[in-house]
Design goal:
The complex is a heterodimer. Chain A is of the alpha+beta class. Chain A has helices spanning 37-61, 78-87, 91-118, 123-139, 142-156, 167-184, 188-192, and strands at residues 2-4, 11-13, 21-24, 31-34, 65-69, 72-76, 161-164. Chain A has 7 helices and 7 strands; from the N terminus they run ββββαββααααβαα. Chain A has a 3-stranded antiparallel beta sheet with strand order 6-5-7. In chain A, strands 1-2 form a two-stranded antiparallel sheet. Chain A has a two-stranded antiparallel sheet with strand order 3-4. Chain B is mainly beta. Chain B is 10% helix and 35% strand. Chain B has 4 helices and 33 strands. Chain B has helices at residues 4-19, 39-63, 143-146, 264-269; strands at residues 28-31, 67-73, 84-87, 90-100, 107-113, 126-130, 133-134, 139-140, 150-154, 165-167, 182-188, 199-202, 205-215, 222-228, 241-244, 249-253, 256-260, 272-275, 289-293, 324-334, 337-349, 354-358, 374-377, 380-383, 388-390, 403-407, 435-437, 446-448, 453-455, 460-462, 476-479, 485-492, 495-499. In chain B, strands 6-9-3-4-5-2-10 form a 7-stranded mixed beta sheet, with no helix packed on it. A 7-stranded mixed beta barrel of chain B has the order 11-14-13-12-18-15-19. Chain B has a 7-stranded antiparallel beta sheet with strand order 24-23-20-21-22-26-25, with no helix packed on it. In chain B, a hairpin with a 6-residue loop joins strand 13 and strand 14 (222-228). The N and C termini of chain B lie far apart (119 Å). The relative contact order of chain B is 0.07. The chains are: A alpha+beta, B mainly beta. Chains A and B meet through strand 2, strand 3, strand 4, helix 1 and strand 6 of A and helix 1, strand 1, helix 2 and helix 3 of B.
Chain lengths: 194, 501
């Protein structure tokens, strides 16, 4: 079987691999293939994507931040914050946050699960899903939001008091798991699985 | 089939490399470590862990928030969700939501109590919204002007049944009178501007407050319930006169205009003035009724009784025995040398010229040299031979400590305070009563409740809960009931006993 190196482009002949074997590029040392590569990468992707999706409700529904200012308390979850924004009339901001911090990350995780585990779609549909996922992945900003939380905490810590809620743990884990999932995903698996 | 496939592959690859001019290199084959072999199953374990974490967080969020109670108010008074409930300044809960109740005649405030504080919300607990209130008397709830309103509570007495629905108070409850306050009722024909929280004044000095103003049960009079602070309860006697000092009085006469008002606060809330005649009657007890006059008689303000007051124990302070120090010095012979010895303690000079003290102060040990005995008290040095010992019939104690009386040939200096002899009981009373240890240092005067005393053969034994310093050895004990000296304190082996005088 012929395989091109992802890194330097050199084409190799790769013999079928036995258990615990992997094929390396003769020129640059990049891993070309390993035993049951597709199944393994799909397994990892699916596992971490499932981990991310079970944490997702906890991350958006539980209170993430409690702000105390002059005795006034405000405690909100991510979803609650978006609802508050809608109610106070900031439709644009609320929509942007809803889209980029809830809808797109959720779609990305769901797409990863579909591509790596469920495999219910036909191959060319799956390829399209993958390209689509690549695009929305750039727009899902869960990790950026985490950064924003930290910046806010540092900037405002003198004025108001902050208490982080249980959702922060879920949020951090959810971001981590979805990142692991995206890293583990091997797009070759879409075409190489029969 | 599976066996044949590997054997075919090299042949095909070989044919490719032979047939084409540029053969593709064979990829390097390496065996990888076993660590990553288990990767797939490990990640599924992590996914399982994630779901556990997720469930755990939901459970934690539900658990940590505590139970819900509902408090009904007539008005929400600006209370908002997420405002806190505080008790003694500590947060014990948070308002979850506020809604109009079904009958639309009030609001229901749903409060989530922290689990620790849940037991405080039992039947009888009182809740109110703390709002800023500025009166001339005081400013309260200042922290709620800028900050959020909060709920305050007064927990139920312990052991009450836990409840989850309460009726809130419209305003903060009137502070319950301090323990030991004297509560009296004043009957007036009209209200005369009197309000609750109005001060009760003695010579213009606040000694208590009006707790409640309302009709008497038959509406014939207006009745004001007053609480006199414990330290001033002795100022009110059975023949005391109360009059209404509310508002201000303007007298226009030939001599000019006379405006009569005391303080601004009194002008607004009114006040009750009390005077006690120069020959004061007995103390009153809680529940006593007085008539509230509209204005004072002309001589009431000129009454000048001398009344003892102060802390509750000071009820007997007018006549606290004043024990003085007494030292018994003697010489002993040891190894051929004369050695000075002394015992120092308390004694109580009596009005008949005798001195009351513990017998150990007057009886020297057998080893003492007979002519060396000297007593020193009140700046006088009295040779031992000049004393005539009269030992009272006191009970023997383990260390033979008992009270004794002696008289000196020369009278004690006149500045020594003498305790009247008729105020010394012959024996300890049969029943224990509240007593005071009459230490001459007024800060060290120690009240001991009757519950802390037990009767025994030697005398009254003081509970171990009360630790007495050696300084109390020989101090006279004064009964709170009869104001008589009923005994002396003996400290022996860490145990305090009251022996008969």
């Amino acid at each position: 079987m012929l395989k091109a190196c992802h890194c330097c482009g050199l084409i190799h002949q790769v013999a079928p691999l036995q258990a615990n074997e992997l094929a390396l590029c003769t020129r640059c040392g990049t891993v070309l293939d390993e035993f049951q590569k597709n199944r393994r990468s799909q397994g990892r992707t699916a596992a971490s994507a499932v981990g991310a999706i079970v944490l997702f409700p906890a991350a958006i529904l539980l209170p993430i931040l409690e702000i105390e200012k002059l005795g006034h308390h405000h405690r909100s979850s991510i979803l609650g914050g978006i609802i508050d924004l809608y109610q106070s009339g900031s439709f644009l901001i609320a929509t942007v946050i809803l889209l980029f911090s809830i809808v797109l990350p959720l779609l990305k995780i769901l797409a990863l699960i579909e591509l790596s585990w469920l495999c219910s779609m036909q191959q060319h549909h799956r390829a399209r899903t993958f390209r689509w996922m690549e695009q929305i992945g750039k727009w899902s900003m869960m990790d950026v939001m985490l950064l924003a939380l930290l910046v806010m905490m540092i900037k405002l810590s003198g004025v108001v008091q902050f208490h982080f809620g249980p959702a922060l743990v879920a949020f951090v884990l959810c971001v981590t798991m979805s990142m692991i999932s995206a890293i583990c995903f091997d797009p070759h698996a879409i075409w190489e699985t029969p | 089939m599976s066996d044949s496939v590997p054997s075919q592959e090299p042949i095909v690859a070989g044919s490719v490399s032979k047939s084409s001019e540029t053969p593709f290199p064979h990829a390097n084959i390496k065996s990888f470590s076993d660590v990553s072999a288990g990767m797939r199953s490990k990640l599924w374990w992590i996914a399982l862990l994630c779901s556990l974490v997720s469930l755990g967080l939901f459970w934690y969020a539900k658990q940590g928030s505590g139970e819900l109670i509902i408090i009904d108010f007539g008005d929400s008074c600006g209370l908002k969700p997420e405002d806190r409930m505080k008790y003694r300044g500590v947060e014990i809960g948070a308002v979850e939501k506020i809604e109009l109740n079904r009958d639309q005649n009030g609001v229901s405030v749903h409060v989530r109590m922290t689990p620790l504080a849940r037991s405080m919300a039992a039947e009888g607990a009182r809740f109110w919204v703390v709002r800023p209130s500025v009166s001339l008397d005081s400013i309260q709830g200042l922290d709620t002007i800028l900050g959020a309103k909060y709920l305050a509570m007064e927990p139920a007495s312990s052991g009450a049944k836990i409840a989850s629905r309460f009726q809130g108070l419209e305003s903060s409850p009137i502070a319950t009178p301090r323990e030991g306050s004297l509560e009296i009722f004043l009957d007036a024909s009209t209200r005369g501007g009197l309000e609750s929280n109005a001060p009760v004044l003695y010579r213009g000095f606040r000694i208590g407050q009006v707790v409640q103003v309302g009709f008497a049960s038959d509406a014939r009079t207006v009745q004001a319930r007053c609480a006199i602070d414990p330290e001033y309860r002795d100022l009110v006697r059975k023949n005391s006169k109360f009059w209404n000092r509310s508002g201000w009085r303007l007298d226009v006469g030939l001599t000019g205009i006379k405006l009569d008002a005391d303080t601004l606060a009194q002008m607004m809330t009114g006040g009750v003035e009390v005077a006690t005649p120069t020959d004061p009657d007995q103390n009153v007890s809680t529940g006593h009724r007085f008539k509230l006059y509209d204005k004072p008689d002309s001589d009431w303000n000129s009454w000048q009784p001398s009344l003892a007051h102060g802390q509750a124990w000071n009820r007997v302070a007018t006549g606290m025995p004043q024990p003085i120090r007494i030292a018994m010095r003697w010489q002993e012979r040891s190894f051929g040398f004369r050695k000075n010895q002394q015992i120092v303690g308390w004694c109580l000079p009596l009005s008949d010229g005798k001195v009351l003290c513990l017998s150990e102060q007057t009886i020297p040990p057998k080893s003492a040299l007979p002519d060396s005995l000297v007593f020193e008290l009140a700046g006088q040095s009295i040779p031992g031979g000049q004393l005539s010992n009269i030992t009272a019939g006191a009970t023997e104690l383990a260390n033979s400590a008992k009270a004794s009386r002696f008289s000196t040939h020369e009278p004690l200096p006149s500045d020594v305070v003498r305790w009247p002899t008729h105020l010394v009981a012959e024996t300890l009373p049969d029943k224990v009563c509240d007593v005071f240890l009459a230490h001459p240092d007024s800060n060290s005067v120690l009240p001991i409740a009757s519950a802390r005393l037990t009767v025994s053969e030697q005398g009254w034994i003081v509970d171990d809960m009360i630790t007495l310093g050696l300084d109390y050895h020989g101090i006279p004990v004064l009964s709170a009931e009869s104001s008589k000296v009923i005994g002396l304190v003996v400290l022996f082996k860490g145990k305090a006993t009251v022996v008969a005088p």
